[in-house]
């Protein structure tokens, strides 16, 4: 399974592609951060994120896109930018028929570190170990995007099996 993880943000939007399956070593395919100037017009910033995502979907052909679920923070402005970037990622993937899943930050932290309360340093450390990297991906947005992709590789496979089992059980009752 190949997953594009997206850590949405207007100033820095993390992108990370991971390939693997549960119980097997994971492989880093690519990682980067799309940066947009804070003083640029909103439409231009969203367009830059869309353009980068389109290029990544064409180049890396993920099976699924995993986006961090937007949650309420104290800074409404930050939440708005995150939600807008998240919407762009969802739209670009949906336009191509690629499934999009969302994971909360605590789900991602728990998947990669074993604790939903892990800090960014712990998550970055585990991403580095799980992908067998020589150095931690920087900035944190890059590491977070990879963590999202890892979370989906592991949890998505389990969710798919559960959904298939439920569907099969439903067919068996008819």
Automatic annotation (TrEMBL):
GO molecular function: crossover junction DNA endonuclease activity; DNA binding; magnesium ion binding
Cofactor: Mg(2+)
Subcellular location as annotated: Cytoplasm
Binding site for Mg(2+) 2: 68
InterPro entries (alphabetical): RNaseH-like_sf (IPR012337), RNaseH_sf (IPR036397), X-over_junc_endoDNase_Mg_BS (IPR020563), X-over_junc_endoDNase_RuvC (IPR002176)
Subunit structure of this chain's protein: Homodimer which binds Holliday junction (HJ) DNA. The HJ becomes 2-fold symmetrical on binding to RuvC with unstacked arms; it has a different conformation from HJ DNA in complex with RuvA. In the full resolvosome a probable DNA-RuvA(4)-RuvB(12)-RuvC(2) complex forms which resolves the HJ.
Protein name: Crossover junction endodeoxyribonuclease RuvC
Organism: Jiangella alkaliphila
């Amino acid at each position: 399974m190949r997953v594009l993880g997206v850590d949405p943000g207007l100033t820095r939007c993390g992108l990370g592609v991971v390939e693997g399956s549960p119980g097997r070593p994971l492989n880093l395919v690519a990682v980067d951060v799309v940066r947009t100037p804070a003083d640029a017009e909103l439409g231009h910033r969203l367009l830059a994120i869309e353009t980068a995502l389109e290029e990544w979907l064409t180049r890396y052909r993920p099976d699924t896109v995993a986006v961090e679920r937007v949650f309420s923070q104290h800074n409404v402005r930050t939440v708005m930018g995150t939600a807008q970037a998240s919407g762009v990622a969802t739209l670009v993937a949906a336009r191509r028929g690629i499934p999009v899943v969302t994971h909360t930050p605590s789900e991602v932290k728990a998947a990669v570190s074993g604790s939903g309360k892990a800090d960014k340093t712990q998550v970055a450390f585990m991403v580095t170990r799980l992908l067998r990297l020589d150095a931690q991906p920087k900035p944190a947005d890059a590491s977070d995007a990879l963590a999202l992709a890892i979370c989906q590789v592991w949890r998505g496979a389990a969710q798919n099996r559960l959904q298939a089992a439920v569907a099969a059980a439903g067919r068996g009752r008819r």
